[in-house]
Amino acid sequence: QARTVSGRIVDATDNRGLPGANVVIKGTNTGTTTDAEGNFRLSVPGNAATLVISSVGFITQEAPVGSSNTVSVTLQSDTRALNEVVVVGYGQKTTRKLTESIGTVQAREITRLPVASPEAAIQGRVSGVQITNVDGTPGGPVSIRIRGVSTVGNNQPLFVVDGVPIGDGTANQINPADIENISVLKDASSASIYGLRAANGVVLITTKRGKQGKPRVAFDVYTGVQNFPKEYQMLSTTDYLALAQEAQANANNQAGLKPGDRDYLVLHPDLRPGSKYVNVDNRQAFRDAVVQDNAPIRNYNLSVNGGNENSNYFISGGYFQQNSIVKKWDLDRYSFRVNSDHKIGSRLKVGQALTIAHSQIRRGSNAGGDGFIYAGTINQPPFFSIYDTDNSVPGNRYGFTGNAGVAGLTILNVAGINQVVDNLNNSTRMLGNIYGEVEIVKGLKFRSVAALDYNVSKNTGWRPGYTAAELGQERNTNEYNDSRGDGIQKVFTNTLSYENVFGGHTVNAIAGTEFQDIRGSSLGYTGFNFQSTNPNFYQNVSNQQGNSDGKGGFLFNNASAGLSQRAYAAYFGRVSYDFRDKYLVTVTARYDMSSNFAPENRAKLFPSVSAAWRISSEEFFKDKVAFITDLKLRGSWGQLGNDKINIDFPYVARVVQSPWYTLGINQSSFKGSGIPSLINRGLRWETNESVDVGFDATFFGRLNILATYYNRNTKDFLYSLPVNLTSGFENIPVNLGQVNNRGIELETSYRSQLGKGATLELFGNITTIRNRLVSLAPGVQEYASGNYRTAVGYPIGYFYGYKVQGVYQNQEQANAALPDVTVNRRKPVPGDLIFEDNNGPGTDGERFSGQSDGQITVEDRTYLGKTIPDFFYGFGANATFKGFDLALLFQGVAGNSVYNSFRVGAEGLTGGGRNALASVNNRWRGEGSSNEMPRATANDLNSNNRFSSRWVESGSFLRFKNIQLGYTVPRLALDKIRAFQSARVYVAATNLFRITNYSGLDPEVITYGSSASQLQAGTDNSNIPQPVIIQIGANLTF
Amino acid sequence: EKKLDLSPLGTLDEQTFYQSENDFKGALLLAYSALLNYTYEQFDGGGWFKGVLLTDDDTTYPNGSVDNVDLFNWTSTDGTWRALWQTTYKGIQRSNIVLEKLPEAKGLPDATRKAFDGEARFLRAYYNFFLATQFGQAPLVEKTARSLEETRSGNSTAGQLWDVVVSDLKLAKEALPEKWDDGNRGRATKGAATALLGKVLLYRAQWENKPALYTEAASEFQSLIGKYSLVKNFQDNFTPTTENNAESIFEIQMGLGGGNPWLPADFNFSAGGSSIGDAGTARLIYFRASCGPNNICAPGSNAQGYGQVQITTPLQNEFEKGDPRRAATIFLEGDPYDTGENVDGSKKWVYQAAYSGTGSSPAKYVKKDGNIDFRSNLSVNNERVIRYADVLLMLAECKILGPTKDLAGAAQLINQVRRRADPTGAILPDVTATTEADLFKALMHERRVEFALESHRYNDLVRWHRAGKINIKQNVDFGRQAANANWSDKNLLKPIPQSELDLNPELKQNTGY
Q: Which domains can be identified in chain B, with CATH numbers?
């Protein structure tokens, strides 16, 4: 027998009625929401006992109905979200019970940014987690550093999706829309349950499950356009010629050459007055040939979820499509997911998760970073043409021109090559798990999870033959290559967990075993000289002409194959105990084994402990310091491992069949065989020992502050130590050295009801890093590579070169210049750069003596900046008013440096060749004209272009990452349409602007191709910048 | 836990390798393949083309770090020296491991074992001789390092490298076959070991001022007389279709291999990597003519050639008027430039002096390469390391400078080489000098024109300088003022790479660096 219950839900902070709160009869789907005054009215069956009242930002409460017909409830604001569930390794905890340092991001935030991968989506949201997009191509690689840079090797954290460790990242194959939340395990205590792979932190991704109730259908859609945030301005033909002429005149003058001398430099005839080229200025044409204006991006997600008390389900399908802001680079991704849970009887529960994702990238020769297609196109000489508009190339097959020999130059027409080359990268991944959980006795559960991660990839590439006349590069024969790979990971996890509360004591324990088996294989071939350019033919290898004459013809029809295998096994356990939420302690250990190390070095125990003290629950605190709602002190210590070394089985001495040598009268090539490298049987993982201490505090119930000091020491890091080349080898894998990272993480948020339905939330986080190499090998103080150096006492991978002090302004100054041994003691002339004499040669093992020695030598190279920032941060705001919602996110880094390698070519001031940046118009042209940029000279005798502070710039930036303004259509309007449960439309902008002094396209840089290592991290090789994205979208539920 | 006992798939293990004949053949080919690294042009090493640059025969158009090599502005941080050093020690390690594993191998026929032993010793001697002449008292490494500690070696003692080279070559000479079958042509022979031994003894006579060694050297050379012959056509020594001919004693065998010949032989030679490359086949890039200072460019240049090597005026003038070897060695204005056809099958090109800063470019190894049709830069033209002509002239040198003077015999040997170039003697009349000094001058001239651009010249200058026969500083014009000004005694040796010194305090730098 039903009756009607009415009531009012009140916000405890201001005692006003709370609109939009959910009121549901416990155990059913029946419910309603409160009106603008917080009132509700609900028909309940006679046997209904309890109502469940919930609202975002408040602690959910249950209220007994009893016999009364009115129920009034006061909801406590839950700004600390103290009861928010946080996913931890092999389990969950509420925020209230946490002793560890874990950063979490919820679904709402993850889907705000229009990006392909979840890791890119959490940039700026979590303290301690620095996310750097390597480039702005669709689904571009993402570099992640958690609490600094703990090793000279691979720094990517371990990704775990629904309990399955999948490796370094999601490879764009996890749809962000399917994610319920992401937990980042930052400290040793939280991560140590992942043992030997957790030293760089762990990212736990949990996907959505069904919720009880009728099927709810959600449809999310957005579409947008992307553009360059900034473009390089290049010289006009007139300025180009002026620069070339000036550079030659300066070189001629310096060498004392007169017209008629053999070495006297003159402009190529094509560049002299009267030539048809001097009036051509194709800068815009080149720019237009490579830049994709308003490149589209779109995303559709459809999901259905629902369930009853016994079963629930979540199914979804997604389509994501993004074109690059440079031409011919399109990503499509299709993804599907089915997750479900089922209760069988009262004790048994089974469930599963399964996702299938297929992604496809269609592109030309541009491979993201390494094509550097934008830079390679816009720096074409401005008098070059891209298209063969006047049919000047006989037999031209493609319509482009190679400008071969124009002005004596032949430069490959990368924009044209990009158009004629076709590459297709396909990858498909199936990732699924199935579990069974049985409750043996109350509180004691056994859970078994089996998971499979299977991926296949197929990459094909077609390049037609072309000539220098057609495209500025000779590729005589066409080429087709096809490479395929598959990988399969099997994970089997069994855990026994126990949970009990007695008196004020809560015990939560888990013990388990895990076995993981990883196998992969690859196969590829390349064929040349196909008879047809029709894909139907060229994809058939037998159609390729076997055409080696051994004397310059081609005989590449090389098939190559690879196989790999690896396995991990572990026992792990964790006990969490607390007394009345006041005294909390967690002890964790994992005994881990990896097949990658020799049997005697295979196993290690990784222990950790953490504890917390909720001072605010103490009697002596509670009443005296009323403005502090909650205060918890916490700390942790533990050890973690890292087994990431670039080679499998580094302890096995392998014989590799490699370099070829030719023998016999038929000149047959044979493979040699030998041991390519030194091995080290004693090799083992590196150990990261870290401590952190901090507090979580809530003031006035609405201002939260979370502060943590961390100190991480990596010992025995895996390092390929350079050895004397006299051994015949270059390096030996060893465990040595120590890296220290320490810093402070601060997170704060403030949430307030402003009244009249307006809410405001402000949040911010900042993380400082101090990274130091504490020691390297015995007797080894440093490791130099190119423009980088890693040395004891300095951050890993800093820039190392000459310091520029200015420009010699006049002859007097040039005459007084210190002799520069590196340029053969050649005297500079006015307009040349002054390099600093800051160090004489040091003694053994000590590079910097700190003493001037009156000359410039290679020893004067010094510290020019680091690639690890001093700090990084994110902040923003969320506000709602009536139906409107507004979200802002800012993000940035400070204190790091970037090497802008594009400028070395484009501001090299040698004149001629590729085009230069328009900024060279500020070059030195006489006393007082510039103290930064040297003179132009065709013959850089002073080596003004050497690697120096001239090319190293501040990489600090503040980015306006995202703004989103949404409007939720009012209930009343929806009721009229009767189609939607809810409807929200929004407009958003991503990467709208940034504040930076960096002169390049984008200061957010990790050297392309080395996103995992910090050794050579900050070189901007003209990566594609993060695009500015303007987007409109809608979230609809049915 | 048993499931963790995995091993790498698809690779061989050192423990089980080095047993069969094929295993050792493969191991030796690896030792040979290090030779290819010397000639690879495109990375830091550029060993072969930069080595050629040192001489007074050629120079480079001012170009960054290459300039430093050409101008004797040598520093220990220059990658060139590091690459030479590294390649040499790689070759030594690859030879050593064969010598270490041979005694353990079961079931190898004695004859095979002996030949492999000889081959490994020949190669080890080749590399150690390179060290002794280029780096002086470089470390002597006689076994494969097995730990970090074992990778550190100090300098060798005076003469130690030379001693090992001589003893290895003596053993190799006895162990190696006179000739390999058709399928193995190109491997070291008894003749190669003998010629190299003679060369080592001749060098040592001059480096260490031990006149008695001239006689020992001469007897090695003498034993080769009649076993080889000068090919009729001088050009045949530099044409790919006439490799390993009757005049050839040892050559570095170039081939396209099975991978990408633009990459050096050792590219990706790592435990995880697979075979990618082959090397030494891209030599044409730097040897080919490119653009002169006025941007007048040889056909097909730039995209195909970088033209770093340009022939000095002194070498242009060194050739006697009409010497047929001139056209086979260097291009001058008006020479037919290409043996092949133009892209469109029309005309042939004619060399213009304006293609080079010096008016001349290398022709040796480039001309008649069969690949200079500007469609490809890849050349499989073997590098001739020791030719019979070299043996004849070295023997002549022993006869001139050695304690038992045989000037007439020396003149006869020199004239034998001249008559091959000009069978009539009308252009290149016989040498008639009768004094030791005059005959030595004739010998120096003959070596210069006969072997120009074959990597011998700078070594010749150094040993003659050490023997007091010439003074490089006073007598040699390197073709660039700065080079002449910079050259000093320290340039008799290369600097030991700085990175090696940094890793090993026991290692001492050569004087002057």
A: 18-147+155-176+472-513 (1.25.40.390), 290-313+323-380 (no CATH)
In a domain, residue A409? The reply is no
| CB-based contact, B401 to chain A, within 8 Å | no
Residue in A763, A721, A734 with CA at minimum distance from that of residue A746: A763
Name the H helices within B322-387.
324-329
A212 found inside a domain: no
The verdict on residue A43 lying in a domain is yes
Chain B residues with CB inside 8 Å of A477's CB?
none
A67 in any annotated domain: yes
Interface with A, mutate which of B9, B77, B242, B513 (most A CBs under 10 A): B9
Window 280-309 of B: residues touching A by CB (8 A cutoff) are 291, 293-297, 300, 302-304
* pLDDT tens-digit series, residues A31-86: 888 887 788 888 888 777 788 888 766 777 788 887 778 888 877 766 555 667 88
Give pTM, 2 decimals.
Answer: 0.84
A729 in contact with B, Cβ within 8 Å:
yes
Q: What is the pLDDT of residues A333-389, one digit of tens each?
A: 999 999 999 999 989 999 999 999 999 999 998 776 556 899 999 999 999 999 999
- For residue range A216-260, list pLDDT tens digits in order: 899 999 999 999 999 999 999 999 999 999 999 999 999 888 897
| Cβ B41 vs Cβ B286: under 8 Å | yes
Closest-CA residue of A relative to B144 is A727
pLDDT at B70: 85
Least Cα distance to B494 among B136, B66, B44, B90 occurs for: B136
Q: Considering only residues 114 to 153 of chain B, which have any Cβ-Cβ distance to chain A shorter than 8 Å?
A: 138-139, 141, 144-146, 148, 150-153
| pLDDT reported for residue A990 | 96
Q: How far apart are CA A934 and CA B484, in angstroms?
A: 30
- Predicted pLDDT of residue A216: 87
Determine if residue A274 is left, alpha or beta; phi over 0 gives left, psi from -120 to 50 gives alpha, anything else beta.
left
Residue A26 pLDDT: 82
Q: Amino acid identity, residue A902?
A: F
Residue B29 to residue A656, Cβ atoms within 8 A: no
Query: At a CB cut-off of 8 Å and minimum separation 6, what does A263 contact?
Result: A255, A257, B293, B357
499-518 in A: which are within 8 Å (CB) of B?
Answer: 515, 517
pLDDT score of A970 more than 90: no
Whether residues A727 and B151 touch (CB distance < 8 A) is answered with: yes
Q: Name every chain B residue with its beta carbon within 8 A of the beta carbon of A264.
A: 293-294
Express each pLDDT in A754-772 by its tens digit: 777 788 999 999 999 999 9
Q: Which domain holds residue A54?
A: 3-75
Percentage of chain B exceeding pLDDT 70: 86
Task: Quickly tell me which residue has 């503040």 as its tokens.
Answer: A958
Answer yes or no: are the C-beta atoms of A463 and A424 closer than 8 Å.
no
How far A404 CA lies from chain B's nearest CA (Å)?
Answer: 9
Query: In whole angstroms, how far apart are CA A918 and each of A233, A238, A250, A901?
Result: 6, 11, 20, 16
pLDDT at A262: 64
* Distance between CA atoms of residues B276 and B257, nearest Å: 9
DSSP A948: B
Instruction: Go through chain B and tell me how many residues it has.
Output: 513
Could you say which residues from 628 to 647 on chain A have a Cβ atom under 8 Å away from some Cβ of chain B? 646-647
Residue A49's closest CA among A35, A32, A66, A27?
Answer: A66
CATH (domain of A9): 2.60.40.1120
Contact B482 A824 (CB under 8 A): yes
Q: Looking at CA atoms only, how far is residue A917 from chain B in angstroms?
A: 22
CA B93 – CA B82 distance, rounded (Å): 16
Tokens read off for A319: 């389509």
User: According to the model, what pLDDT value does residue A831 have?
Assistant: 96
